[in-house]
Amino acid sequence: MSLVIQGGHLIDPANHVDGKKDIYIDDNGFIVGVGKSPAGFKARKTIEAHGRIVCPGLVDLRARLREPGLEYKATIESEVHAAVAAGITTLCCPPDTLPVIDTPAMAQMLQSRAWRFGLAFIHPLGALTQRLEGKLLADMEALDEAGCVGFTNALVPVTDTLVMRRALEYAATLDLTVFLHSEDPWLRNGGCVHEGEVGTRLGLPGIPEAAEIVGVARDLALIEQTGCRAHFCGLSSARAAAMVAQARKKGLPVSADTAAHHLHLTEHDIGDFNTLCHVRPPLRGKHDREGLRKALKTGVINAICSDHQPHEPDAKLAPFARSEPGISALETLLPLTLRLVDEKLLTLAEAIALLTHKPAEIIGVETGRLGVGATADICLFDPEARWTLTEAKIVSRGHNTPFLGQTFRGKVTHTLVGGKLVYEALKK
Amino acid sequence: MNQGLQFDDAGRLRHLLTIEGLSRQTIVEILDTAESFISVGEREIKKIPLLRGKTVVNLFFESSTRTRTTFEIAAKRLSADVINLNVGASSTSKGETLLDTIRNLEAMHTDLFVVRHAESGAAHLIARHVPPHVRIINAGDGRHAHPTQGLLDMFTIRRHKGSFEKLKVAIVGDIMHSRVARSQIHALKALNVAELRVVAPKTLLPMAVEKLGVRPCTRMEEGLDGVDVVMMLRLQRERMQGAHIPSEHEYFNLYGLTPAKLALAARDAIVMHPGPMNRGLEIDSAVADGPQSVILPQVTYGIAVRMAVMALIMGGASASRDSGMRDTASKAHAPAARKKRK
């Protein structure tokens, strides 16, 4: 249905647009005009956007939807509803589902399930090694053909350095991007919190900063040798961010993201065993949070992701080390990023870029921009609306978030995917 | 930070989960109450009816002899009905969650749970999910806390040294894995000791331990120099496996408390150990059985201290103060009564 989004403030960082402009969308869901109506255009529907920010739909590089395998936690259906309610129109799913995404059939199944609901787009990340075992390479070419936008062993470390080297060489052969969760498993040693002040006070086994540093150093050495394009997922320490910055300066083809909660929380938020703050990699010290923020500001970190991990309530009702890590985070991705604007770390346009065209470029998908000819994946939000996160408001099946009860500024009002209005907030 | 969970709205101790967050005043109140209970154990009839009609469940997910037995004796001397449950690690493998185990026992109208668990934070988790009338005492959770051990150690120090303010204290051994060390540190800091050192090789010192207000030392010569109290810790024999120490022999040479090393401390220094001891690994028999050792009195005091904690926790609650309480050990619950009127 042809429509016009009228009177809003358009922010489209990829096209350097930041001002009052209307958007015209044709029957096929493509943008046919920005700022001025194309000749003969007739809108059958008008979305009134006065006082709203109009920006590309958000692109989330890491969200676990729990399907297949862990449907008691969440399903593709429940989570794509949560995504569009949060302004997210594109989701990347890590391959650590059950079974693992290491066959074209699995990759296609995920996309077709999402397609059926017609809400957010799902792009699978393929397994780097078969069954994520770190031994035999997965069929990367076939998985690429089936729609995988990157390859990763997710949180399962490839301990064999030679296998890692071959994986990067092979990915480089096919010009594919490898997503890395760099961590030395020996140094991690079953830890569950940052090895620091809070872990020492609570007597919880720690994961030293060195686990991440050693992991990143090893992988950078292999990237330098193989020339593979690589993306570092979920950096948690200031030093790791500095290493990626240096590698970039050297000209290595590396990018990086961090989860929104790592830009706000530290180990101190764990308080007295708050399992909602049990995440992996762990929340680290204040110095690390500041280092990550600096890396965001200087462009070393190219994307903010949700690292969404919905859980059933029981997963968090256990002693800290036995509770399952992860935050249900789709619905706080935009609010937490806007908080960085309120805190004067980023401009609004920079914040939106980190959630839209920059992550889209990492996965090589044509979205995250709103020029003429682009698919109309669009998010509208009221930048002034204040709201409080309560369990009743969470759309995701997972209610596991440490941000419950917090007040945010900025609320999504409309989400369009392929020109179709898929979410509209209820008016008060 | 623990204020919310350990105390009720009126500021009375509701659960004992950790010593962190307890004021000097609260600790002294517990020690004073314990002092009045010492005599109970020396009587012909070792019983007072303070917890008559109350059900105490000793819920041990991890094995223990000393702690479980002294808790049992303490509860029985207070006339409570005591049930010992050694759940072991197998219950979780049967699929029952920790909270389900607790809920089932709660349904049997338990008033107080004494809980030991291998995971740090287990007692906090339980305390967060029991109804308001149920009390929890942490008898050891992972590497986190063992508050009654910390308190009985303070009782022992006070009995032998009088006051805390001028004392130099060293805690020696596996600080990293020790819940006892963490409880001792919080207690000694709250009681304002003059100096507190922790002594261990770097492989057994936790990261950022100085943030707890202690001075880390890696050499016994530095750690024991002039101290008034030496608190030894048990070394798990499997620590060689994690590459924490090379051998028992080398550990004993460097960190075992021998008469020669004890000579570095003040002449009247006391030696403590939470037990069970590894003779010839962390401590020389000549020291363990020597004149400066107060290791066995620690066990005796443990009963009185655990009685005091139970009495204060149960007394500050809805526990009806029956007539039996007035005619026995009246001094014992004086502090509790004082608090209740506030």
Describe it for me?
The complex is a heterodimer of chains A (428) and B (342). Chain A is an alpha/beta fold and 428 residues long. Helices cover 28% and strands 21% of the residues of chain A. Chain A has 12 helices and 21 strands. In chain A, strand 2 (9-12) and strand 3 (17-20) form a beta hairpin. Chain B has 2 domains: 15-146 and 298-318, 3-Layer(aba) Sandwich (Rossmann fold), CATH 3.40.50; 147-294, Aspartate/ornithine carbamoyltransferase (Rossmann fold), CATH 3.40.50. Chain B has helices spanning 3-6, 24-42, 66-77, 90-93, 98-106, 122-129, 147-161, 179-190, 220-224, 248-255, 259-262, 285-288, 295-315, 323-327, 334-341, and strands spanning 55-60, 81-86, 112-117, 135-141, 168-172, 195-199, 215-217, 229-232, 270-272. In chain B, the strands form 2 sheets. Chain B has a 5-stranded parallel sheet. In chain B, helix 3 (66-77) packs across helix 13 (295-315) and helix 7 crosses helix 8 (179-190). The radius of gyration of chain B is 20 Å and the shape is globular. Chain A binds chain B through residues 195-197, 199-206, 208, 271-273, 314, 317-322, and chain B through 1-2, 5, 20, 97-99, 117, 119-122, 124-125, 129, 141-145, 179, 182, 206-209, 211-212.
Could you state the order of secondary-structure elements of chain B as H and E? HHEHEHHEHEHEHEEHEHHEHHHH
| Structural class based on helices, strands and sheet pairing of chain A | alpha/beta
Strand order of the largest sheet of chain A: 3-2-7-19-20-21
Instruction: Assess the beta-strand content of chain A as a share of residues.
Output: 15-25%
State the total count of DSSP E strands of chain A. Answer: 21
Mean pLDDT of chain A: 97
Do you know the CATH topology of the largest domain in chain B? Rossmann fold
Residue runs with pLDDT of under 50 for 5 or more positions of chain A: none
CATH class of the largest domain in chain B: Alpha Beta
CATH superfamily grouping of the largest domain in chain A = Metal-dependent hydrolases
Biggest sheet statistics of chain B:
5 strands, parallel
Put simply, the count of helices of chain A is 12
